[in-house]
Write a structure and sequence with these properties.
By secondary structure, the chain is mostly helical. It has 15 helices and two strands. The chain folds into two domains: 36 residues, no CATH class; 210 residues, Orthogonal Bundle (MetI-like fold), CATH 1.10.3720. It has a two-stranded antiparallel ribbon with strand order 1-2. α5 packs across α8.
């Protein structure tokens, strides 16, 4: 109930009249005057908020796909192929994630401009995997080490190549880890602020993380009810999906941490 408190307050605030919200003597957690949907409708109809949501969804989906495309094979190779550089390479991947974005966005801006992707969401599709792939590979390395080698060896005895054994046997067993990677990569994409702000300025290309504060805060005017409505519209679906996948998400992180 304590964790749900901010969501309840946001939901109540989103439906309040201005006179109810700005009267200091009114209870902030209750409707002192009749509720209204005007501010929710303003958010959906009179701001580019639906565009922000669509941009966030498709960029997040592409980043997740790219992360899995590179992270799964890399993690499997580092975990299974006995090479002297595998351990240091895995540690180096994790340290890449620890580099603060503020140290990189100026140099990355030059790359984005050189590729002609400035003010386009494609710039984020290019940049975000540089954050998600290292840490997701590190997570999946630990999870791969938790799988017995006999699994793919038996598949190769049955006639599969190593690639076939990986695709048909190992990947299905990695599903909890894959769920953890999907949730992590998408959440990071949806919440990242610095790159989204530095690389994109047109409203039609903005993500939720930058579009909401820049479009609903105009000078010293704060559209509080619409801001809180955007919180609910974005957070509640993510919270529901996270709750449904919580068991596999926790299993992915804990099993990945045991052998990492």
């Amino acid at each position: 109930m304590v964790a749900a408190g901010p969501f309840v307050w946001s939901a109540v605030t989103a439906l309040k009249l201005n006179s109810d919200l700005y009267t200091a003597t009114n209870n902030p957690f209750a409707f002192n005057e009749p509720a209204t949907l005007d501010h929710v409708l303003f958010l959906v109809q009179d701001t580019p908020f639906p565009t922000f949501v669509v941009n966030t969804l498709w960029v997040g989906a592409l980043v997740v796909a790219i992360t899995l495309l590179f992270g799964l094979p890399a993690a499997y190779a580092l975990a299974r192929l006995d090479r002297p550089w595998a351990g240091p390479a895995g540690i180096a991947l994790f340290f890449v994630y620890l580099v603060p974005p503020t140290l990189l966005f100026l140099s990355l801006t030059r790359v984005v401009v050189w590729l002609g992707l400035q003010d386009s969401t494609w710039s984020l599709v290019l940049i975000y995997p540089t954050i998600t792939i290292p840490v997701c590979t590190w997570l999946l390395i630990g999870f791969c080490k938790g799988l017995p080698k006999d699994v793919e060896e038996q598949a190769m005895v049955d006639g599969y190549s190593r690639l076939g054994a990986f695709a048909r046997v190992v990947v299905p067993l990695l599903f909890p880890g894959i769920v953890a990677v999907v949730v992590f990569a998408f959440t990071l994409t949806a919440s990242e602020f610095i790159y989204a702000l530095a690389f994109i300025s047109p409203s039609a290309e903005k993500m939720v993380s930058t579009g909401v504060p820049t479009e609903l805060i105009r000078g010293d005017v704060f559209f509080w009810q619409s801001l809180q409505a955007s919180n609910i519209v974005v957070a509640v679906p993510i919270a529901l999906v996270f709750t449904l996948l919580l068991g596999r998400f926790v299993a992915g992180f804990t099993m990945g941490a045991v052998k990492g």
